[in-house]
Amino acid sequence: MPDRIVVGSLGGAFGVQGEVRLKSFCADPGAIADYTPLFTEDGRQFVQLVLTGQQKNGFTARLDGVVTKEDADALRNTKLYADRSQMPSLPDDEYYYSDLIGLDVLDTGGKSLGTVKNVMDHGAGDLLEILVPGAPDTVLLPFTQAAVPTVDLASGRLIADPPEGLF
Question: Which tens digit of pLDDT belongs to each residue from 50-79?
């Protein structure tokens, strides 16, 4: 979904009245409700999202059309997407994760290292998961200015200066 950005995920039911557990991926977690309508990968649309409470690692919420515990449980592990046009513009040195996935990774000498498969945030900083051709495992590259000095979205590539021995 190139015209949409993942903004959160659903964790199943909260109680028996159709509320869901919601994890927001937004810089301001509560702003997820401002980006409606939200969409699922299979095209389902939620026009209304109301945050009903806060819990560890997220929120509880109500979505239009979700009225029972079974409805909410059926949405477990479902990602929510917002239209890119709803999202705020970013400064030049910030990127949406979805813009990085699929970029070619070159070293500072122009040699291909692989392709960005995923972007992960485990709290200490972002990591780029690099799919290396012919390698059985992926490589995790810190997404820092030192390790990735250049990101060129227009050319579909980034230049990496990985730590010694990483590749």
Answer: 999 999 889 999 999 999 999 999 999 999
Counting every residue written for the chain, the total comes to: 167
Q: Could you say which DSSP state residue 20 is in?
A: E
Domain ranges, residue 115 = 97-159
**Start-to-end Cα distance in the chain:** 30
Count of domains in the chain? 2
**Residues 117, 63 within the same domain:** no
Q: Do 12 and 66 have their domain in common?
A: yes
CATH code at position 10: 2.40.30.60
pLDDT per position as a tens digit, 109-130: 999 999 999 998 877 889 999 9
Q: Are residues 69 and 111 located together in one domain of the fold?
A: no
